[in-house]
Amino acid sequence: MAFSIDTFKAALALGGARPSLFEVQITFNPGSGIVTDGLSKLQFMARAASLPASTVGSFPVPYFGRQIKLAGDRVFEDWQVTVINDEDFAVRAAFEEWSKLINSHEANLATLRPGLGLGAGAASSLGYKANAEVRQYSKLGNVIRRYQFVGLYPTIVSDIALNWAESDQIEEFAVQFSYDYWEVVDTTTAPLGA
Questions:
Q1: 155-174 b/e (C-beta count within 10 Å ≥ 16 → b)
Q2: Number of domains in the chain
Q3: pLDDT number for residue 115
Q4: pLDDT per position as a tens digit, 75-104
Q5: Bridge partners for 116 per DSSP
Q6: Which end of the chain has the least Cβ crowding within 10 Å, N or C?
Q7: Is 60 inside any structural domain?
Q8: pLDDT tens-digit map of 133-146
Q9: The pLDDT value given to residue 128
Q10: In this structure, what CATH number is given to the domain that contains residue 166?
């Protein structure tokens, strides 16, 4: 019966996934030369993120005054994470440094030299890209869904608004990422923190 609360409760047997039970981690390829110690705190400081959308484009094909729609290419929209800013600025500094390695502020050059780590020179490889993972946890602390973003890099590290009237708040900023693609990773039953 469509209006039975008992039928609804039976369908929602596990109590529903909770949007607050998640964490975000970013990992660089070994030997990339990127040093981002501050990103180790991201799993604690990422206040908001999202599970990725799945978008397949479409295009019309006309025939005798009518159209049919055919599936087009998959599109991966940018992904955003909202970060809590601690007084050490460790996570923000890591994102600023990563962005600077891609393209410096003053010289319009990359400061990541492939195979040599940090230093002046043009980056001829894609060593600035990383992988990220967002994990959704159950109420029991088990990973129930994992999404991996492949070929990820920051495109925007947002501003932090300062205001004398905002005395009982913690600073936040957003980081927008572009990436090559995402995939679902097999879930494990490891509890939170394992």
A1: eebeeeeeeeeeeeeeeebe
A2: 1
A3: 46
A4: 999 999 999 999 999 999 999 989 988 888
A5: none
A6: N
A7: no
A8: 999 999 999 999 99
A9: 87
A10: 2.30.110
Tens-place pLDDT, residues 28-44: 876 666 666 788 899 99
- What lies within 8 Å, CB to CB, of 104 at 6+ separation is 110, 111
Return the DSSP state at 187. Answer: P
Structure tokens at 49: 């993120």
**Distance of alpha carbon 174 from alpha carbon 191, whole angstroms:** 28
In a domain, 7, yes or no: no
Q: Is residue 142 part of a domain?
A: yes
- What pLDDT is recorded for position 121? 37
Question: What's the domain range around 161?
Answer: 16-54+69-185
Query: Could you give the C-alpha distances from 179 to 39, 117, 144, 182, in angstroms and in order?
Result: 18, 22, 23, 8
Query: Does the pLDDT of residue 113 top 60, yes or no?
Result: no
Residue at 79: amino acid letter = W
User: In this structure, what token pair is assigned to residue 75?
Assistant: 């599109």
Backbone angles phi, psi at 191, to 5 degrees: -70, 160
CB distance 158 to 139 below 8 Å: no
Question: CA angle 70-76-80, nearest 5°?
Answer: 150
Per DSSP, the residues of 46-77 read EEE--PPP-EEEEEEEEETTEEEEEEEEEE--
